[in-house]
Here is the input.
Amino acid sequence: MKTLFLNIALLSSIYSISAQTGYEIKINFKNCKDTVAYLAYYQFDKSYLADTCKKIDKGMITFKGKNKLDKGVYYLVSQEKARYFDFFIDDKDQKLQLSTDANDLVKTLKCSNSKQNDDFFSYIKFITAKNIEFTDFRTKTVGMKKEDSTKFINDKTKELNESVIAFEKKFMDEHTGTFVGDVIKLKSEKEAKDIPKASNGRPDSMYVYNYYKAHYWDGLNFEDDGMMRTPFFADRVKKYFNSVVIQNPDSINVEIDRMMSKTKQGSKMNMFLLAYFTPTYESSKVMGFDKVFVHIIDTYFRTGKAKGIYDDKTIDNIEKRGDILKPILLGNIAPDLLMIDTVGHKSIAKMGFDTVKTSAGATKLYYDNIQNLAQQFVTMSSVKAEYLVLVFWDVDCGHCKTEIPKLLEEYHALLKDKKDVKVFSVYTQHEYDKYRKYIIENKLDWINVYDGIHINNIKEKYDIYSTPVIYVLDKNKRIKAKRIGTEQVKDIIAQMEAENKAIKK
Here is the structure.
């Protein structure tokens, strides 16, 4: 049973507070052995310090400040960074008188001047008692037969769950519109009732899913920054986007926009959600999810909605990152490359490209020799194949030395299976002799090219920050897969082949 007593990492960051009314939190902590205590609070998926009591006098702990604390769930922390208990702060509850006893922390929790907190403590006491009851009845199964033990546990678990569900419903009904009610509601799952039957006679799983998704955020006010300062909100957001929303970029984009539209521009809720979504989808390991990152940039960064969350330099860097990724999203036609193969090397070497030192020099050589160069180019767009594997690699890259021979094996296996596939193999450096030697020694019998004229900027154009990097293109040079392992190439092509057959039917 999940309660507010969660293990959250404590970060030593000082809390920024505003307003002028002040706060005073007095805690009579009997049998407390601490000499120092801390007041901390939740903020999205982290925790921060709000205040410190540097001297505990006979168990009396006092936190006091001239400025008002922001609405949220706060907790008492020991000098060893152990969490004691949670309580609520809102506009009305800024001056609290709490008490407890270290010998029975939960059972003795009280708040003499805040009904919201005293009701919450009653909630915690009930849930804790049920947890203890659950643990106790499990010990009673010792010596029982397996089937008897299973039935006993199932019956007791059902009984306990029903009592907890009934208690929580009553609690939320009695606290509708209060902060504590909204927080308890946030952690509660919404389950469908009276589920219709599907055509196979079983409960309709799609109905259950649609109901769950539609009611997932029931009662949550996204304009209330206090909800972000609870131990449940961040986990709720992560679960929604990782497990509830259909895992494709377009669906995720729709849900991000829907959630962001419910927040106030410039609010803490708005800022923290955008600050979560941006790095999450920039660093996603799921192929194609960079489309979400690009969508975030186009929708929120380029429109000025990220100001105040990131500084101008960071925003500029993120937008530049979007400029790189946008042309190479899945489904786009791959940017063409003007490459030179091993045969064409002699010609461009005579033109001076092997010894040119600067970009300006390379540009001048290009325009001085443009007519002759046209005959030397090997372009990706000119390659005719149903499936084109585009690979970027480096002779001196240790990982490439393992993966390139594997890719060669895969290529030959595909040819043996009569697949219309070609490999456009791009060497990312310019040490021609080393490159040609490797080709010969390893019998790389595919299209071997490199940027001999220094004008393609392949590292930025294809986001090559390490090697090897493998893309798979269709016959129209649309990107169907990218940044995949050699072991995935065969499966990707098989999938593409199945899609082509389905289209032709």
